[in-house]
Structures are given as C-alpha cells and as structure tokens.
Write a structure and sequence with these properties.
Layout (H helix, E strand, L loop, with lengths): L10 E2 L1 H13 L38 H14 L14 H4 L6 H4 L5 E5 L6 E6 L2 E7 L2 E4 L4 E3 L5 E10 L5 E5 L4 E4 H7 E9 L6 E9 L3 H11 L18 E2 L11 E7 L6 H14 L7 E6 L2 E2 L18 E4 L2 E6 L2 E4 L11 E6 L6 E5 L3 E4 L8 E5 L7 E2 L5 E3 L7 E5 L5 E5 L7 E7 L5 E8 L2 E11 L5 E4 L3 E3 L3 E11 L2 E8 L6 E6 L5 E2 L6 E5 L8 E4 L3 E6 L2 E7 L2 E4 L3
Parallel strand pairs: 2-9, 13-14
Antiparallel strand pairs: 1-3, 2-5, 3-4, 4-7, 5-6, 7-8, 10-11, 12-13, 14-15, 16-17, 16-40, 17-18, 19-20, 20-21, 21-22, 23-24, 24-25, 25-26, 27-28, 28-29, 29-30, 29-31, 32-33, 33-34, 34-35, 36-37, 37-38, 38-39
Length: 574
C-alpha cells in the first residue's frame, strides 16, 4: 500500500481549527447593520475590517484521502475571502483543484453553508480506502437564498466524501455534497446579515426580509434578492413595487469611490410615478449597508430621479410603556406610573394583559380567564368582545384587530374588531398545538406564535394574509425560529426583525429574556428572578420585564434596573 493509502484513524480538522482561530484573532467585529430610523440614503462612513488573506492551499503531492478532505474544506472556506483581488475567489478555483473530473464543474459552493460552533471541532474519519466522513456539530445552516436556520442544541451532521486516484496517482474528491463548511468565527467575518425590504399591502410600511450573504459583492447580492422577491414564508403577506421581469443591467452593483451604489435596471417598463417612488424607497432601504452612502438608480439607462416615498418601519414608535396597577391602567412617565387618560376604572374586571394599537384608539384586556373585553372609558363600561376558555394575552394590530387564541381552537387564532366582528384565522401548522403566546408585528404583516404540542415547544413566525377589506383570513407557512429555546411563556416584537421571548434555553433552570432574531442566533440576557411578563417594541433600548412581586424593570446596559413598583403586565403597542 502506498503512502497515500496508509490507514488513518479519526483526526480533528486541525486546519479548519487553525483557520477559525486565525480569523478570530486577526479581525475585529464587522460593522453593524442599521436596525432603526427613517428611510434615508445611508451612513457616510463605516469602518471596515481589512480583507481576509487567502488561506487555501493547493493539494500537496502525495496527500492521502484525509489530508485531501482537510485541504478541500479549508480551501473552500477561503473561497469566501473578502479580498476581491485574490485568485482564490475565482469561483473557488483552489478548492476545485481538490475535486476530480465532473465534480470540479458541478460542485456548487454557495448552495448551502453549514456553520459549526467554536466549542466543537469537526472530526474526520477514513471509513474505507476511498471514503472519508466528516462529523460536526451544527450551529446554523444557510441556504442558497440566504435564509438562516438556527440549529437545535446538539444538532449533528455527517458529510461523506468519495475519492479516487487520478492518472498521476493523486487522490481527488469525486463525490460530495454541495455547499461549504465554516466555523462560526469564519462565517461572521465573511458573511453578513442584510434586510431586503418589501412593502405592506397598503404600501405604508417597509417590511424586512433578513437574510445572510457573502460580504464580498454584498450590494449585488441584496439587489438580486430584492428583484427576485420575498422569501417563500413571507410572500403572501407583503407586496413589492418591483415590476415583473426587471433585471440588473449590468448584473452587478458597483460602488463608486464616494460610496454611491450604481443600480441599473432593465427588462420591463416601470409603472406609474407612485410605484416608481415606492420602488426607489425599497432600493434605498435595502442598500443601507456598509460602504454605501448613496444610491443612483437608472432604468433603461435613464436616471430614476423620483423622490422615494417616506415609509414607516415597525420600530418607528415613541409610544410610552403602559402597565396595570391595581384597578388602573397606567403609563410610565418620568419614572412614575400615572393613569392613562380616557380609560375608566377596571374594578371588578379581574383585569390583566392589556393591549393597544399604536394610536391608543383600540384598547383591550382580558377579564378573568375567558373574556376579551374592550377597555372601559369615562363614558362607557367595558364591552365583551369574545368569550372562550383559556384565552391567551391579546395583541392589537395597526388595523384595529385584536388577536388571541383559546383552548381547543384546533389550528386557528381569533381576530376580533371593536365592532364585534370575529374571524377564525386558520393556520394548518397549528393543528394539534396549544398556543401559549402571540404577537402581531407593528407593520401588521407578520405574527409570532409560541405554541406547544407533542413535539415540544415551537416559536414560529408567519405572514398574515388579509382580504381586500384588510380582514385577516389565514396565516402563511411557518418560519421556525428560536430553536435553542426549551421552554417559554411570552413572546413580543423587540424590533421589526427580532423577537423577545421569556423562557429557558440550553441547560438553564431559570427563565430569562431572550433576543431571537428572525435570521440569527438566539441570545439570553441576564436572568431576572421572578420574571413573569415582558414588553418590547422599540428596539433593545426599551426592554421591560415585570416580576411576580409587582416590580417593573427595564434593561440598562447589562443590568436590570427597577423602573416602578406595584405594576403588572407591562406592554407597548402591538
């Protein structure tokens, strides 16, 4: 047996480990993606870390199967280098040198990315003379469209590589799966999350569709994604002003020295002036990325000079926090709880879990365990809108619908208007499950649902499908998020692409406020003993929690600070 065929036992991917350590040591954190504020052109200057040096090496003569697989994984990871002048970026040319024959042309590296955590080093095993297996713990998977899926704790994946000897006796990979394996530090340096913006059905809100793309040529990637349309799970809840058939011409978005992104469109006639303004708003919001300080759009070579429409985003809110205190609905003002104007006494209602829309024109609350009521005013008593067993805390959308769910609903949610209209909103994926908590996004296009069933706890987000009178009709397909959560009781929207969840993750024994991105890793905040309810809706700068003993806390830096006492059920609009 030749040296290339020597049996090799289980070996850690030393090369990949070294790559992860080197990347983490040499590079700082990437510039942050804007998550709030009005639709504007963008930031003037962003500090960008220097480009990654090409780390892939060509196959060593006489290398055995294990070494070839190790070298391939390292070279394929280096194929995402940020350096536009590096030869390694020529369609992963160095990585393809490890492949044999047809595999060189058919392997698609961008089809999928498997991310493994820094706490786990993949293992490589020679399972036969011509086959190598790589086992790794999975932190996340990213598909060809940039959709990020957080893995459940302890998720494992096995990759199998078949090898052959070429005509000169060198081992090469002949059969492999599409995609690339990256350590978490490497992924964070060469990939970046970006929001692709679409429109609410009434064209009043920008709705983010957050995905992950390689840092290199990011502007081109996000524009291609915008023109291709929303992700499948979101598609039925939003619209776009991009006309059908529009393409990038040229098929790239160059960025000039002054930071101007140059977007050329062709392939279809642009619609009416209002639609062109909405299109420009989508483009400018989507291109709010590092290195871009302005946008020039041409259509058929003619500058698109229409002023973009100013649209709202789900975190554009200055509404104050409200909470219940005894039989009074109060608002937090200058560190004190004061009664909300226009709301009557709640005495005798056993009131809890109040909710409202942004303007405060629709206020509802639960009375006992089985009644959803319209809050009383100075002139009118509370009005029962829905009676059903085991109602969950309500959420009020911007169109005036109060959402809840009840025991035995069997795959549907309840949406109720102040005038008494009740709609059962179907969701096939809720069949056989018990809803614990729900919350409609501020833009009204999406709903987050926390539920439990035979397969345990799930946190899902789905598009809200409405009729031409804006009545909710059905929920779209579910996008599962927060996979590391093992138990939870409450969900809120922290901003337009992040959820807040009160629950436990990993091996934790106490509940904590978790930040759950729609495309990213769940993060637990410091534990707050006795927390029973949470509030959110204005970004991470405004996170609140209430404890069972009536203490209201808000998050300041890395700590929880008392904001008021004698309060329960804090809420922000939604």
């Amino acid at each position: 047996m030749t040296a290339a065929r020597r049996p090799v036992g289980r070996t850690p991917l030393a090369v990949l480990s070294a790559l992860a350590v080197l990347v983490a040591a040499l590079l700082g954190a990437c510039a942050a993606i804007p998550t709030s504020g009005a639709v504007v052109v963008g930031v003037d200057k962003v500090s960008e870390p220097g480009p990654l040096s090409p780390l892939g090496e060509r196959p060593a003569p006489g290398a055995g199967p294990v070494a070839i697989v190790q070298g391939f994984l390292t070279a394929s990871a280096a194929g995402f280098s940020r350096d536009p002048s590096a030869d390694v970026n020529n369609d992963f040319s160095v990585a393809r040198e490890y492949l044999a024959g047809e595999a060189r042309g058919t392997w698609r590296p961008r089809e999928r990315v498997v991310v493994y955590p820094t706490s786990s080093i993949p293992e490589i095993t020679l399972v036969s003379d011509t086959q190598v297996q790589v086992k790794l713990t999975v932190a996340a998977r990213i598909d060809a469209n940039g959709q990020y899926a957080e893995a459940v704790p302890g998720a494992q994946e096995s990759l199998v590589f078949d090898l052959v000897e070429d005509s000169s006796g060198q081992w090469r990979i002949s059969v492999l799966d599409d995609g690339v394996v990256l350590s978490a530090p490497s992924f964070e340096q060469v990939y970046r999350s970006a929001a692709i913006y679409f429109l609410s059905p009434d064209s009043s809100y920008l709705v983010p569709d957050v995905r992950w793309f390689p840092v290199r040529n990011l502007a081109t990637s996000v524009m291609q994604a915008l023109l291709a349309g929303p992700s499948a799970w979101l598609r039925d809840g939003v619209r776009t002003a991009v006309p059908e058939g529009v393409k990038l011409t040229p098929d790239a978005v160059p960025i000039a020295a002054d930071g101007t992104a140059e977007v050329g469109l062709s392939g279809a006639a642009l619609a009416a002036l209002a639609e062109r303004a909405l299109l420009l708003a989508q483009i400018e919001a989507t291109l709010r990325i590092p290195r871009v300080s302005g946008v020039d759009v041409t259509a058929g070579g003619v500058p698109l000079t229409t002023t973009p429409t100013v649209l709202k985003r789900g975190i554009d809110s200055e509404a104050p926090l409200e909470a219940l205190q005894g039989d009074v609905l109060t608002t937090l003002s200058k560190g004190a709880l004061v009664p909300v104007d226009g709301v009557g006494s709640l005495a005798g209602l056993a009131a809890h879990d109040a909710a409202r829309d942004e303007a405060g024109t629709v206020r509802v609350l639960l009375s006992g365990a089985d009644s959803l009521v319209l809050a009383p005013t100075a002139d009118a008593p509370a009005k029962v809108l829905l009676r059903a067993p085991g109602l969950v805390p309500p959420s009020v959308d911007r169109l005036g619908w109060a959402w809840t769910a009840h025991a035995g609903a069997g795959g549907s949610l309840d949406a109720v208007r102040a005038d008494g209209q009740v709609v059962a909103v179907g969701a096939d994926w809720l069949a056989g499950r018990t809803v614990r908590s729900l919350r409609v996004s501020r833009d009204g296009t999406r709903i987050a649902v926390l539920s439990s069933g035979a397969d345990g706890l799930t946190l899902d987000v789905a598009a809200v499908m409405r009729d031409d009178k804006e009545r909710p009709q059905q929920l779209g397909a579910a996008l599962g998020v927060g996979s590391t959560l093992v138990d939870a009781t409450r969900v809120v929207w922290v901003d337009d692409s992040t959820l807040g969840v009160l629950g436990r993750s990993g091996a934790a024994t106490a509940a904590a406020y978790h930040l759950v991105p729609l495309a990213g890793q769940t993060r637990a905040l410091p534990t707050l003993d006795g927390a029973v309810t949470i509030a959110g809706g204005k970004g991470e700068r405004a996170l609140y929690a209430a404890t069972s003993d009536g203490q209201l806390f808000w998050r300041s830096g890395q700590s929880w600070v008392v904001a008021a006492t004698g309060a329960r059920d804090p809420s922000l609009p939604g």
